[in-house]
């Protein structure tokens, strides 16, 4: 009887200690609708990476928005980024994304540095990227608006845990740190943006 009672009382604790069920991240298979779906403005919400250069960048990004525009050919997107790096607002419009349909990857090229990612299947208003840097895992979440549902955020956090990330290794941006749009005056901190 005591053994049965111990088993029944201990079962919920054992179940709670199990790792989350890890659904596989399913990459999008690129088709003719993929690139048009990416066009427009996105707000970077959160990300995690074990790749040292990306980890260093994640630590200083306080807020970021970016827009994809058609490039010089159908498999290229131009990128404009507006971000707060620590206390400095930076505008970058010198990078682009190369779309490789044969293996469904995106390659971000910025100042001779290339970063490769797979677009992960998700809600049409979310942009989840699995960053491919050797054996260094990385995952990021962006959205069409500065806010995502609690459900979507919890699903993303579960995927991060499945990839072995702790809460301390996940970096969130904050809408309160948003940079003013180019030419916009805030009235309180009219710091000039740096064009990079």
Describe this structure in words.
The N and C termini lie far apart (72 Å). This protein has 196 residues and is an alpha+beta fold. Helix content is 22%, strand content 38%. A hairpin with a 5-residue loop joins strand 7 (126-132) and strand 8 (138-143).
Defining key terms:
196 residues; alpha+beta; 22% helix; 38% strand; disordered N terminus
Structural class: alpha+beta
Helix content: 10-25%
Beta-strand fraction estimate: 35-45%
- Alpha-carbon distance between the two ends: 72 Å
Give the strand order of the largest sheet, numbering strands 1, 2, ... along the chain.
1-2-3-4-5-6-7-8
Major sheet description: 8 strands, antiparallel, barrel
Tally of helical segments = 4
Radius of gyration: 20 Å
Please provide the ordered H/E string of secondary-structure elements. HHEHEEEEEEEHEE
| DSSP summary, beta strand count | 10
Uncertain residue ranges? 1-18
Overall geometric form: globular
Structure summarized in a few sentences:
The chain is an alpha+beta fold and 196 residues long. It has helices at 2-17, 34-38, 52-60, 150-162; strands spanning 40-49, 61-70, 76-85, 88-100, 105-110, 113-120, 126-132, 138-143, 171-172, 194-195.
Strand and helix map with partners:
Layout: H1 2-17, H2 34-38, E1 40-49, H3 52-60, E2 61-70, E3 76-85, E4 88-100, E5 105-110, E6 113-120, E7 126-132, E8 138-143, H4 150-162, E9 171-172, E10 194-195
Parallel strand pairs: 4-10
Antiparallel strand pairs: 1-2, 1-8, 1-9, 2-3, 3-4, 4-5, 5-6, 6-7, 7-8
